[in-house]
Structures are given as C-alpha cells and as structure tokens.
Amino acid sequence: MKNNKAIRYIGLLVLGVLLGWILFGGSSEDDSGHDHKEVAETNEMWTCSMHPQIMQPEPGDCPICGMDLIPAEAGSDGLLADQFRLTENAMALANIQTTVVGTGNFEGNEIKLSGKIAENEEANAVQVSYFSGRIERLNVSFTGEEVRQGQLLATIYSPELYAAQQELITAASLKESQPALYKAVRNKLKLWKLSESQINQIEATGKVKENFPVYATVSGTVTEKLVEQGDYVKQGEPMLKIANLSTVWANFDVYENQIDLFKKGQEVTVTTNAYPNKEFKGKIDFIDPVLDTQTRTLTLRVVLNNKDDIFKPGMFVSAKIDGVIPKSDETLTIPASAVLWTGERSVVYLKIDPQQPVFEMREVKLGKQMGNEYQVIEGLFAGNEIVTNGTFTVDAAAQLQGKKSMMNKEGAVTVTGHEGHSGMQTNASIPTGEQITFNERRSVSDTFKGQLKAILDDYINLKDALVIENTKNTTVAAKRFIDDLNKVDMTLLTDEKTHNLWMALDSELKEGARAISNASDIKTQRMHFKDFSSHLIKAVQLFGVNEKVYVEYCPMADNNKGAYWLSKEEKVINPYFGDAMLTCGEVIQIIE
C-alpha cells in the first residue's frame, strides 16, 4: 500500500511539474518571442515600389499613389544591382503590359510616311501677255477661279499692235510688188499670237482694231493673279498662274536610313483625314537625288489622280508602302512602343522572371522600322519578355530607384527633395516631386534652347486650351506649334548623334501636333495629347530650355492607363479631365 501511495504521489508531482512547465514555461517563452516579434515589426520599414522615398514603420497605402506598401528590404532581395521590382498593384495602375519577343511578325511588313499635297508642277502654266499694252478689261475676278483653254481672259489696248495693223493694211496693197514685206508684217502679227483668221479679217476690212483679246492657252485653276484691270503690261510679262489640278503630287519626307527601301514604280496607298474611310492608290514617280542637309531627309513623290477634285494643295496625307523588306523566319522584331531612345542608345525593359514583376534595362541595336515594328539586330533573343506598354513609367521607376535607365546608363541618378524637402520622406512630410539630374543631357547652344522654349510655350497654350475644353484654341495652338517647330534651326546641332536624336523627336512631335490639329473633338485631341506630351518631355529632358519645367502625372487618365504632361507651374491643373477632375495628379519630376 505504501509503495502504491508513493507511486501515486510521484505521478501527481510529475504531472504537476509538466502542467506548470506547459502553462508557465511556455508562456514565458511565448512572451519572449512576442517581444522579439514586436521589436522586429517595430524595426521593419515599408516603402512604395513607385515612390521609394516613402518610408513608413507599418504597412498601408502609399500616400502619393495609393499603391500597397512593401517591406523595404523585400524590394531588392535576390535581385542583381541593376534589377528592380514593381508591385502587382503598380503594374495594374500604370497599365504596364509585356510581350514575349517573337520572330518574323511584322504588322503588314509596311512603312508609314507623312507628307503633303502639292500642285503638279509639270501641269502648271503661266499666262503671259504677248504684246505690250494697257489692260482695258480683266475677265478673271479671283484666285481659285476655273478657266478653260480658249476662254477670254482679258482685253488689251496696245499702241504697238495698233501700228502693226496699219502696216499690214499698207503692205497688203503692195503684196504683189513687195511680197517679202507683206510676209514679214504678217509673221510679226503671228508672233503676237494673232490667229490667221484675225489677220485675214484686218486685211479684208481694212479697219484697225483698238483692243485685242487674250485667250487662255491651258485649262486649270487660277492660283495667282499677277495683274489688275488698268495695269500696263510689257510683252512677255506674266498675268496669271494657272494650275491643272487633275493630277497632284503627294510629297513625302524619307530619312536617309530608309532610302534603300524605295524605288520608282513602287505602289503606294495614300490616306487623308479628310476622307478617313477611303484609300487612294499611286506609284512612286520621283525620288529626289539631293538630300536636305538640315532635315537629313529627301523627297519621295507620288502622282495622284485628282479628277474628282478630292486633294487640295497643302493637305496633309499619309502613305503606306507594303513589302519593302522581305519577311524572314529569322527576323526578330519588337513593337515600337517598347523602345526608348537617348540618341546614342536604344533601350528596352526586360521582364527577367515570368512569375515576378522584376525588370532590367537592356540596350538593343535596331534595324529598319516597319510600321509599328523594329528589327532587332542585337540585344534580345526570341522568347525574351519585354515591356510594350507603360515603358516610360517603368523607366521613371528605374530612375527613382537609382537603377540603370534610359538617361542613366550607369545607374547614377541624383534624387533630391523638392521645395524645402530633403532626404527620405515619411508620411508626415511628402514631397510633390523629385529633381533628377541626368548624366546624358545633350550639349546644345542657348539659341537652340530658345527655339525649343518657343515650341514649349505653344505646348503650354495647347495644354491650357485642353484644360478649359476649347477645341478651337487647341487646334490653333497645335498649328502654331508646327509653325514654330519648322523654324527650329537644326544646323545648330553640330554633333551628329544629337542631330539624329532631335530629328527622331521632331518627326514624332510634328505627327502628334498634326493629329491634334486635325481632330474635331476634345476627346480625340486629349487622346493624341498623351503621346505628343511624352515626346516633348523627352526633348526638354535631353536639351533643356533654360527654365524650370514640371513633369506631372495622372494615373487615372486614358482610362486608368495613366498619362504625363508638362507644366510651368507646380500646381496641378489636369488637361485630360478639365473641370471634371481638375487637380487629379502630382508632380513627379522637375527639369531644371
């Protein structure tokens, strides 16, 4: 019995110790672990993948863009020095899309050109006066009037012709005895374009006519009146310029690296915004053998049938030329939207992990541009996944994170605070933008910067017109932008790489401004304004305008795809929404 009791007591003791250890020892350890956990959570910082200057001690939303914050150390875990990560929310908000690179996938294997309609100079004529005299009556009232061959254009009183008629009447009475004289007088009148019937009538009646008619020698449209009724004209002096518009020229600018793609006789499809649902066929008739040294382009001419008077001189047109490069199974191509240029380099952003939003800048060597596709000579392989939409946004994220980017091939980006803010910011003090110093700012003269500033001023006027939804003023500003852009003196760019970079931007800016000016509604104008702005932002970043300019961004523009614009003031006034969302957006960069 005693042994049984001892065993029972020992069992109870062991059970009590075990329960105590579970209840109190485990609790102590848990508390200790909980303390460590609290310390760990207290020490962990959270940041935004799109705005790495944001640092907060706890998870939540980015106070700038509203994206989910991520652990600060998680953004670079397992990544190489030039790689960076975006969150899924950032990808969705900026509508960043990627495409797997394939081969031989040109969209239609075509090249697009922009041009303008001009008069067919081969069909133009100048109506002159074949004798001196005073214009008694001018039958052409205005420029643009249609005339037909043989139509009476003017009546002229000519003292010389009056005297010559008297000579004919006298010579006619002596033609038997002095046939040579008679023949010479008749020939003189023929040189003044008098017909045989007119000369015979003068000879038969013996009467001198005071006023003589001038008839049209060609049919066409009067493009310029050079005289007025009552003017005195000399023999051979031009009176009217007449253009036959039954055929017209479509003149297109071709860059020197595209010259070898074209030849005479090639079929061209021409379109114009005036008739958006129609296509017109023509053939290359002439390729200018002389290159324009300022624009580095030459003129390619297409003759178009204009019997229905569809094309007007000065009208903008576009051309598509198919099959200029044979398709090949080995031709690697990428969308043009994937490429960013610096003048010296062409870069794309590679998504290095199919399962993770991790990116890296990759330099590429490009070949010919075919419509919306570029040939890739070096830098990519079939199967690579690259950013094809939102490339500019990804590049901005790379710049802000100090990674290699379009303008910073070494990854050396200096980011400073804005308007009194400095260093890393917390929720209590958030900068509205960053001042970024680029390593590859092109060196240009102050004169060139001044010309660039003029087109920036036109852009600001255009932007302000979009804010108040004034379609007419937007169109006027776009046309003024084109006029000032044409005044930019490209001979000031003596460096070839800088010149080529500007030429690429110049072409895109003209195309964007034309699209805006040709649009008839504010929605379409705003749609074209997005790409137009991105190209001007590049220009101002690369060349500078000796003035502080703000790059502003609205993530909700373009159906939540996001869009940028330039402003001369820090205050956000949104051109994509106007009064509906006037202050939507933020300053993301200051260009000094």
Task: Explain the overall architecture.
The chain is of the alpha+beta class. It folds into 5 domains: about 1-75; about 85-110 and about 330-435, conserved putative lor/sdh protein from methanococcus maripaludis s2 fold (Beta Barrel); about 110-120 and about 245-320, Elongation Factor Tu (Ef-tu), domain 3, CATH 2.40.30; about 120-245, RNA polymerase II/Efflux pump adaptor protein, barrel-sandwich hybrid domain (OB fold (Dihydrolipoamide Acetyltransferase, E2P)), CATH 2.40.50.100; about 445-590, no CATH class. It is built from 11 helices and 31 strands. The strands form 8 sheets. Strands 4, 6, 21, 22, 23, 24 and 25 form a 7-stranded antiparallel sheet that branches. The protein is elongated. The protein starts with a helix and ends with a strand. The relative contact order is 0.10.
Low-confidence stretches: 21-42, 104-108, 412-439
Number of domains: 5
Structural class from helices and strands?
alpha+beta
State the helix count. 11
Q: Estimate the global geometry from the Cα principal axes.
A: elongated
Number of strands: 31
Radius of gyration: 38 Å
Determine the strand fraction and express it as a percent band: 25-35%
Largest sheet: 7 strands, antiparallel
What is the helical fraction, as a range of percent? Answer: 25-40%
Q: What is the averaged pLDDT score?
A: 78
Query: Could you give the distance between the termini?
Result: 98 Å
